[in-house]
Amino acid sequence: MVIEYIRYTVPARRADEFEQAYRAASSVLDDDPHCLAYEIARGVEEPEHYTVRIEWDSIEGHEQGFRRSPRFGEFFAAVKPFFSHIEEMKHYDARFGAR
Fold first, then answer.
1. Residue 78: its pLDDT value, please?
2. Which helix (H) or strand (E) holds 14?
3. How far apart are CA 31 and CA 69, in angstroms?
4. Cα–Cα–Cα angle for 49, 33, 92, nearest 5°?
5. Residues ≥6 apart with Cβ < 8 Å to 15
6. CB-based contact 2:58 (threshold 8 Å)
7. Series of mean pLDDT values for 10-residue runs along the chain (99 residues)
């Protein structure tokens, strides 16, 4: 498993639009066999900051499976208006944690 983190800075006036975009895109993530889990979190102290966390079965599953899937275009269309607001988009290998 790998975790993709996408950090956004979204102007307050577009926060509702951003959240709605990810609500629309979430159905694609829900249906994709390579997506294990995801969450969209909004900053408390700095509400213009959002972090999207997606657990993928592998980098290949994300980049070769999901991005080449028939529904990827639907996902991309929903979130594309916010690509200019991305501060970071990278994969991480989880080392340890707790529930």
1. 98
2. none
3. 11
4. 45
5. 42, 47, 48
6. yes
7. 97 97 98 98 98 98 97 97 98 91
Buried/exposed code over 42-72 (b: 16+ C-beta within 10 A; e: otherwise): eeeeeebebebebbbbeeebbeebbeebeee
Q: Tell me, what amino acid is at 27?
A: S
CB 83 within 8 A of CB 22: no
Angle between helix axes 15-31 and 72-79 (nearest 10 degrees) is: 170
At the topology level, CATH places domain 2-92 in Alpha-Beta Plaits (3.30.70)
* pLDDT given at position 98: 85
**β-pair type (86-92, 35-42):** unpaired
CA-closest candidate to residue 35, choices 82, 78, 2, 70:
2
Model confidence, pTM:
0.94
